[in-house]
Write a structure and sequence with these properties.
The protein has a five-stranded antiparallel β-sheet. Strands 1-2-5-3 form a four-stranded mixed β-sheet, with helices on one face. It has helices spanning 3-10, 41-49, 100-110, 125-131, 191-208, 228-234, 263-281, and strands at residues 13-16, 32-38, 54-57, 63-65, 70-77, 84-88, 91-95, 134-135, 138-139, 144-150, 156-160, 178-185, 241-242, 245-247, 255-257, 290-292. The longest helix is centred in the last third of the chain and has 19 residues, at 263-281. Helix content is 26%, strand content 23%. It has three domains: 3-79, Uridine Diphospho-n-acetylenolpyruvylglucosamine Reductase, domain 2, CATH 3.30.43.10; 82-206, 2-Layer Sandwich (Uridine Diphospho-n-acetylenolpyruvylglucosamine Reductase, domain 3), CATH 3.30.465.10; 211-306, UDP-N-acetylenolpyruvoylglucosamine reductase, C-terminal domain (Uridine Diphospho-n-acetylenolpyruvylglucosamine Reductase, domain 1, Alpha-Beta Complex), CATH 3.90.78.10. The chain is α+β, with helices and mostly antiparallel strands. The chain has seven helices and 16 strands. A hairpin with a 7-residue loop joins strand 14 (245-247) and strand 15 (255-257). Residues 25, 56-63, 77, 96, 120-124, 126-128, 130-131, 133-135, 169, 178-179, 211, 215-217, 290 line the site of flavin-adenine dinucleotide.
Length: 306
């Protein structure tokens, strides 16, 4: 059976050559060989059993997609994989494809809190767990109790949060695993206080972040005891530009697409920032953004020749 026939038999919606630049925050990158919308665990298991190369996208808010696009199957999770199901007053399974803003709104309606660490983070539950996303109000590891995954080959696995070895903007999943849902520990105490803190955080973010241009938020993690944005600014790069890719004049850890940037230009700007900060201050910045597609291993290396 051909791959397309197998995907049709599984009942998933497949779009060959779908434009990914329209789906990711940076608005760059080439097409997906096949974009596959998967709306149930059973279908996801079926897709994974096909043995094809698979990439999963959340909202693409931390993803730098290669200009040549993404070979194989690019998955987006919806339907059952984006649901929120309470299993008690302060615990719920959240589907990996559920948007974080939708999660917060749903919790607000239910009179429950706990997802404040995700205030203003424009990703999905899946992307947030994989990145251990967070803010000054906490991070994913503070509320994730367990996760459910589909492994390459199609097996389903549940793991406790401790198995993910959460660290700063980092979690360890079994190789090639796709997260289907996360069990969240929520808060029924001090709901109003948490909402007030969340609103104050959102207000601060509006004032300090360049939210009017496409970006992936913080391009680099903060090195211990310092701030990536401070170092990039001190290296003289605030406002620096390569083609349409620019170090935001408002916040130097945000790299923005001023209109016609390519993924290659954003990668070159990331290398320039790493090289400049390393050479001037001896600090090697760690990219927070994830590379999607056929990037070489040294794509973001400060030593790669441009
Ligand atoms: C304006 C702006 C502000 C931001 N602010 C913050 C912030 O304050 N704090 C913060 O931590 N981040 C922030 N980010 C970055 C980003 O929103 C987070 O990292 C978010 O968690 C990424 O989620 P996503 O669904 O968009 O993931 P994507 O960007 O789509 O994917 C990120 C990685 O996760 C993988 N992935 C996604 N879903 C799954 C899944 N179901 N199973 C396995 N792997 C998966 C992808 O393959 C990729 O490797 C910001 C981004 C923007 C654009």
């Amino acid at each position: 059976m051909s791959l397309d026939a197998a995907l049709t038999a599984l009942g998933v919606n497949t779009t060959p050559g779908a434009r990914l630049d329209r789906l990711v925050y940076w608005r760059v990158g080439g097409p997906a060989e096949r974009l596959v919308d998967v709306n149930s665990v059973a279908r996801l298991r079926g897709v994974m059993a096909l043995g094809e190369p698979v990439t999963v996208l959340g909202r693409g808010s931390n993803a730098l997609v290669h200009d040549d696009g993404v070979p194989g199957l690019t998955l987006r999770l919806s339907g059952e994989l984006a649901e929120l199901n309470f299993i008690g007053p302060d615990r719920a399974w959240a589907g990996a494809g559920l948007g974080l803003t939708a999660l917060i709104n749903r919790l607000d309606k239910a009179g429950v809190a706990g997802a404040e660490p995700f205030a203003g983070v424009p990703g999905t539950v899946g992307g947030a767990v994989v990145m251990n996303a967070g803010t000054t109000l906490g991070e994913a590891k503070d509320l994730v109790e367990a996760v459910e995954l589909v492994l390459p080959g199609g097996d389903l696995l549940e793991l406790p949060a401790e198995a993910l070895a959460f660290a700063y903007r980092h979690a360890e999943l079994p190789p090639g695993a796709i997260l289907t849902r996360a069990l969240l520990r929520l808060r029924t105490d001090d709901v109003e206080g948490l909402i007030t803190r969340r609103k104050a955080l959102l207000e601060r973010r509006k004032q300090t972040q360049p939210l009017d241009l496409p970006s992936c938020g913080s391009t680099f993690t903060n090195p211990p005891g310092d701030f990536a944005g401070r170092l990039i600014e001190a290296a003289g790069l605030k406002g620096a530009q390569i083609g349409g890719a620019q170090v935001s004049p408002k916040h130097a850890n945000f790299f923005v697409n001023t209109g016609d940037a390519t993924a290659a230009q954003l990668a070159a700007l990331i290398r320039l920032a790493r090289r400049s900060v390393r050479d001037q201050f001896g600090v090697l910045l760690t990219p927070e953004v994830r590379l999607i597609g056929p990037w070489p291993d040294d794509a973001l290396s400060p030593d790669r020749a441009d």
